[in-house]
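Folding problem:
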Amino acid sequence: MDKDKVQAAIPPYRIFDHTADLGVEIYGRNERELFCNAAFALFDIVTDVSLVHVTGEWEVFAEGGDLEELLVNFLREILYMCSGEGLLLKEFMISEMDNFHVKGTARGEPFIHGRHCMNIEIKAITYHRVEIRKASGTWVGRVIFDV
């Protein structure tokens, strides 16, 4: 089974200015790495991921009509794991992926008061200006987080 795992020392993304929201541009060598890096970026923005230990693993599944919708829906699933289930995640693996489905695992732990802090609340992942493209051999994605 071909898996991509991301646990970057330097986050493989950058934040760009967007009125009242937070824009994130994500990079990857392929689509799987791009999705892993997008999930990592979400949690790296939300909390200090260096304080998150890997004590559990959870499955992630999303569907979409194309890669852009798939990315938004994947990140919405990841965001729900944080805001709805109280999990902080830092490692992501994609086990299956095509243009309409993605399946993988996320590793981390439940939020622990006193050890973890929340830097910023991401309320939603939007479709506004969502984009995935291949440029010079690198996959680039852009998403807007509603904060």
